[in-house]
Amino acid sequence: MAKSGGASTCFSISLCVLIFLIIAALAVAIFGTTYYTREKKALSIYKETKCLVTNYTQINKTCVSETCTGSGFLRTCRKNSKPCNLQFYAVQYNITNQTVDTTFTGSGGPGSNSFNHTYTCYYRTTNITKIRWDWPQPRTYLIVLIVGWSCFGVFLIATIGISIFFCLRKNSMSYNQLP
Fold first, then answer.
1. What is the pTM of this model?
2. Is 52 within 8 Å of 90 (Cβ atoms)?
3. What letters, b where the CB count within 10 A reaches 16 and e where it falls short, cover 123-160?
4. What Cα–Cα distance (Å) separates residue 124 from each residue in 38, 41, 49, 129, 132?
5. What is the 3-state secondary structure (H, E, C) of the chain?
6. Which of 4, 47, 73, 93 has the highest CB neighbour number within 10 Å of its CB?
7. Which residues cross the membrane (predicted)?
C-alpha cells in the first residue's frame, strides 16, 4: 500500500506541475499571437517617411495603476504609483505632395534634443496623422508565439502521457493484487 500512496502523490505533484506549465505556456502563446498579429498588420499599413520635429514637450508626472487580486467579495485592489514621463512631439512630414502637421505622444523617440532635427518615422496609410518612431517588429513576437504554442503542446502531451501511464500502472497493480 505504501508504494501505491507514493505513486499517487507523485502523480498528483506531476499533474499539478504540468497543469501549471500548460497554463503558463498558453499565456505566453496567447501573448505572442496577439502581438504578432498586431505587428504583422502594422507592417502593411505603415510607411516610412522623414519627420521634422517642430516641437517637443516632456511632462513629468506620477502614473497610477491598479492591481487587483481575487474575485467577488474577496476581490482586493491596490493602487500603485510611479514616476513616468509623457513625451509629446509636434512633427511635420511630406507624403504624396502634401505636408502633414501632427502632434502625438510617443515613447522611444529621439528625445529632448530633437527640436528642428529630422528623423525617420512611420505614418499610418489609413490615417496619415498617426505616427510611430519604430518600425513594426513581428519577428520577435513570432518567436514568442512559436515557443509558447510548442511548449503548450509538449506539456499537454506529457500530461496525457503521464495520466495514461499512472492509470495503466494503477490498473495493473489492482489486477496483480486479485486473489
1. 0.57
2. no
3. beeeebeebbbeebebeebbebbeebbebbeebbeebe
4. 13, 11, 11, 7, 8
5. CHHHHHHHHHHHHHHHHHHHHHHHHHHHHHHHHHHHHHHHHHHHHEEEEEEEEEEEEEEEEEEEEEEEECCHHHCEEEEEEEEEEEEEEEEEEEECCEEEEEEEECCCCCCHHHCCCEEEEEEECCEEEEEECCCCCHHHHHHHHHHHHHHHHHHHHHHHHHHHHHHHHHHHHHHHCCC
6. 93
7. 12-37, 140-166
- Each residue's pLDDT tens digit, 77-132: 888 888 888 888 889 998 888 888 888 787 778 888 888 999 998 998 888 888 88
The residue type found at 18 is L
